[in-house]
Amino acid sequence: MKRIPTLTLGLAAMTALALAGCTSASDVQDGAANASAIPSYDTSSITKQDDIAALLPDSVTADGVLTAGASTDYAPAEFRDPSGNPVGYDVDLTRAIAAVLGLDAKTEHAEFDSIIPAVGTKFDLGISSFTITPERLESVTMVSYINVGSQFNVAKGNPEGVDPSNTLNLCGLTIGVQTGTSQESAIKGYSTACTAAGKPVIDVKPYSAQSDATTALAGGALDATFADSTVAGYAQIQTEGKVETVGEVIDAAPQGVVVAKGDTATAEAVRQAIQYLMDEGYWDEILETWGIDTSQALKTSEIDPSV
Taking the alpha carbons of 252, 81, 68, 281 in that order, is the dihedral positive or negative? Predict the structure, then answer.
């Protein structure tokens, strides 16, 4: 299994937070947004590529706006600044794709598990840290752009001695995940393995927002949380060290932009736009802006890659 590096903690110098005494998910989210300087990538140098833009159907170009659905509570990929504006590396990617396609960009918040059903109607795309899985490929088309693994967070000092090096070590623990994520599916599978081994099940606690799970962990209501490796790393910064990562990054897999099933024109336009951003170095620059190790950036974008 390929080990994917986590978020570079040098970003802490740019995003010093004051989250002491947080008691609610909104406190954690607001704290994350009230950083002294929230990064943002300037896409103004990215110009429209006429040959790529010409691939888009009228259903996307008619209003001049590329609208993406995102669950904006998953820092540093997608979250909100103090004014409520969406920010994060996925949000910057959305703006960059739109620039290549000659469109304005709009990221709209939605609950994570409501985004996929709305792609092709309410949203042109879903760009919200969607892991590409065989199950998702049955209902939508996905265009790859990054390779991200999963990692556990525990409270500072790991008071419960959580050791995820063997998933059977997790039996009997209470673990929080965001609803609808690949981590929720994975942890339920680990729990089934616990039962098969004659061990206590994992008490899986689903949350609609990752910030809720982080708050519960920092407050002692959970033994651990399970999230994307980039998100797990950033949670250390959000909470000023009240939570920390434990164990290695596991199950690295590609994430993709969600396009409506059968919309081959939009999928190809998005693929070519992302490939242009990769080839010209813009995608690496976006990730660097957010302190993400660029070894996670894919070099080739694919439609419905084998997973």
Answer: negative
Tell me how far apart the alpha carbons of residues 142 and 137 are, in angstroms, rounded to a whole number. Answer: 7
Cβ neighbour number for residue 141 with a 10 Å cutoff: 24
Q: Which two tokens stand for residue 14?
A: 């740019």
Supply the pTM of this predicted model. 0.76
Cis preceding-peptide flag for 76 (omega within 30 of 0): yes
CB 110 within 8 A of CB 161: no
Q: 196: burial class by Cβ within 10 Å (0-12, 13-18, 19+)?
A: exposed
Nearest to 34 by CA among 84, 72, 90, 106: 84
Sheet arrangement for strand 243-260: 104-109, 65-70, 125-126, 243-260, 140-155, 224-228, 174-178, 203-207
Q: What is the pLDDT of residue 14?
A: 31
CB 126 within 8 A of CB 68: yes
- Within the chain, residue ranges assigned H as helices are 25-33, 50-53, 58-61, 89-100, 112-118, 134-137, 182-196, 210-218, 229-238, 264-279, 282-289
Cα(273)–Cα(205) distance, integer angstroms: 38
pLDDT per position as a tens digit, 62-107: 999 999 999 998 999 999 999 999 999 999 999 999 999 999 999 9
